[in-house]
Write a structure and sequence with these properties.
Elements (H helix, E strand, L loop, with lengths): L11 H32 L9 H18 L3 H25 L1
Helix pairs in contact: 1-3, 2-3
Length: 99
Amino acid sequence: MTILSGPDCTTMTDVRAGVDALDRELVALLAKRFAYMDAAARIKPERGHVRDEARKTQVIENARAEAVRLGVPDAVVADLWEALVEASIAYELAAFDKR
């Protein structure tokens, strides 16, 4: 099945196939992001260095700015990134504790 771009979809089957394909890509990108969290847990010298509120703010603001640039709802993106960053911190803490 050919995956169409959003504007080219003419049926809900087209839309669902595109969303499913994109979701697979997003999960693959998240796997790459979590690999960076594994690296951070390995590199940081102390558990207390895992949470960095200034960096968290920067990451969320970067995502918000990119959303604005692309014309998608920046508040929604900021909320998603809040959840993503908190999940990443929890993941990194667990990875730190394992080492």
